[in-house]
Automatic annotation (TrEMBL):
<dbReference type="InterPro" id="IPR007219">
    <property type="entry name" value="XnlR_reg_dom"/>
</dbReference>
<dbReference type="InterPro" id="IPR050815">
    <property type="entry name" value="TF_fung"/>
</dbReference>
<dbReference type="GO" id="GO:0005634">
    <property type="term" value="C:nucleus"/>
</dbReference>
<dbReference type="GO" id="GO:0008270">
    <property type="term" value="F:zinc ion binding"/>
</dbReference>
<dbReference type="Pfam" id="PF04082">
    <property type="entry name" value="Fungal_trans"/>
</dbReference>
<keyword id="KW-0539">Nucleus</keyword>
<dbReference type="GO" id="GO:0000981">
    <property type="term" value="F:DNA-binding transcription factor activity, RNA polymerase II-specific"/>
</dbReference>
<protein>
    <recommendedName>
        <fullName>Xylanolytic transcriptional activator regulatory domain-containing protein</fullName>
    </recommendedName>
</protein>
<keyword id="KW-0479">Metal-binding</keyword>
<keyword id="KW-0804">Transcription</keyword>
<feature type="domain" description="Xylanolytic transcriptional activator regulatory">
    <location>
        <begin position="23"/>
        <end position="110"/>
    </location>
</feature>
<dbReference type="GO" id="GO:0003677">
    <property type="term" value="F:DNA binding"/>
</dbReference>
<dbReference type="GO" id="GO:0006351">
    <property type="term" value="P:DNA-templated transcription"/>
</dbReference>
<keyword id="KW-0805">Transcription regulation</keyword>
């Protein structure tokens, strides 16, 4: 018997968009919307503990949101930063910094909710 499990985020259609959008604005809007939902989900887990997130945990190669000032001015970023990419703090805007901090918080929450010590040490 094969069982299929999907997260509530998948059921709602909230997922990391890996396919390329038509223009960078659409791609950035999708990326920012996903990060905003991820942040809200993660912060809500602090106040109302539950075992898992409604969204998939972002992998290290996911794109961070572009610089906020460039986004507000409609300027396409010169490069797409990922979580593990080496960079200076000046390369990140406030929204991307919060996204990165929230991802770290999600990892902490995963470790706290782990039932087995070796379960989350991946």
């Amino acid at each position: 018997m094969c069982e299929v499990w999907t997260s509530p985020g998948d059921q709602l259609g909230v997922k990391i968009f890996r396919e390329e959008a038509f223009v960078w604005v659409d791609r950035e809007e999708q990326n920012r919307a996903w990060w905003a939902v991820f942040m809200l989900d993660c912060v809500s887990r602090v106040g109302y503990p539950r075992d898992s997130s409604i969204l998939e945990v972002p992998c290290p190669d996911i794109r961070l949101p572009s610089d906020t000032s460039a986004w507000d001015e409609g300027l396409m970023p010169s490069k797409n930063l990922t979580i593990l990419q080496p960079r200076s703090n000046q390369d990140l805007g406030p929204f991307a910094t919060m996204a990165e901090a929230t991802r770290l918080l999600s990892r902490v929450l995963e470790h706290i909710s782990a039932k087995d010590v070796n379960e989350q040490l991946q």
